[in-house]
Structures are given as C-alpha cells and as structure tokens.
Automatic annotation (TrEMBL):
Keywords: Membrane, Transmembrane, Transmembrane helix
Gene3D superfamilies: Glycoprotein, Type 4 Pilin
Organism of derivation: Terrimicrobium sacchariphilum
Protein name from the UniProt record: Prepilin-type N-terminal cleavage/methylation domain-containing protein
Membrane spanning stretches: 12-33
Domain of life, per lineage: Bacteria
A Pfam cross-reference name: N_methyl
PANTHER family assigned: GENERAL SECRETION PATHWAY PROTEIN G, TYPE II SECRETION SYSTEM PROTEIN H
Amino acid sequence: MRTAPHHRAFTLVELLVTIGILALLVSLLLPMAKTWNAGAQTVSCSNNLRQMFLYLDAYARENNGVYPAVSDATTGNSWWLTLQNYINTPSQVVGIRKRTIFLCPASLRTYPNQTARRTYGMNCEGLKNDQGVLDWRTPIRPISQSRLSSTLFIADTCNGPANNGDGYQYFRATASPAFTDVVEARHSGRANALFLDGHVELIDPKAPESLDKVKNLGQ
C-alpha cells in the first residue's frame, strides 16, 4: 500500500531566517524605490518646463515677439495666468498637457498643502520699460537677449506665505524676492531651471554661477 509523501514543515529557525531575509530585502528596496520616484519627479518637472517653453514660444510668435510679463500692465494677471489663458484657446501647439505643467510633482513634498496652482517663478532681473525705469511689468523680448543659453528664465520656487498656497511667481538676483531665497532645490539639492534658449537643467541656487545666469537677463 502506497502512502502519501511526507512534506517536512518549516522549523521555527527556518521561518525566522526567511522572515529576516525578506525584511532585509524590503529595507534595501525601499530606498531604491524612493530614489526612483524622486528621479521620475525630476524628469516630469523638466518635461513641464519644456512643454511650457513650447507654449511661451508660440505665445511670443503671436504677440509681437514678447513673452508674458511677470505682471501684465493692463490686466494685472501674472505670467502664468496669461499663459494659461492662452493655452485654453485654440493653439497650433498640440499634444501638450494643459493642466499640470505649472505644478512640479516634487512640490507635494515641500509645500504645506495641495492647493497650489503654480510652483514655478519667472526671472525679472533688470527689466526696464520704454523710459528706462526698472519695471517688472515689462515683458521679456528674447530677440533682444544676447545670452539665451546662459540666461535663466523660469525655475522651481518655494511656497510664498502671502501667495495663497502658490509658489513665488517671480524672482530677481538680489532684490526681494531674491533668487537664493525663493528658488527651491527640491530635486536632491537642485532646482530645475528653464533657460531662454529652451533647454532645461538642474542648478544649485546657492552657487555663484547660478546667480550670474539670473543677472544675464538685465545685461
């Protein structure tokens, strides 16, 4: 008469060893998962800025070669609202997300709540009106800039206490709000930045060369 095969049960020691190995694997994989997630957020943020530039370029081609002003002299709208209104109208630029490009995914970790509509700010260093007076309502005219690839345009900004949950909408080299105070290094100690030639790179807001790239706008 054949008997059923006997299966040896796990001993307590073997079970504890297995649990220990699984715990070790989890402890090793969790930091890797966080790193992968942070990397994905950095890529998504840089894509936001690249997509934003396509809209800005299209806007300039339809508006006498200028980008939206930090604060529109007529409507008072900030640059991102002007651009948002433009995005919501028929455009020749297709296939671009319309609702999320103003929000950096990594800002969910650094903003106190999730009410922000915008987490990027625009450089307005040294902008002057027709009378030669410094005026942040003056729009940037890219054709008049000689250092497109080394002039910082838009970057990650931190939450502003008086901005109703939004990030700072603009920054300057040293005058309030100063670049080093409001540009937020939320990507592993770096901030994503869009330059006037359309390229995006990670910068260190505290580095002197980053400040020089802000000042290039006013030179």
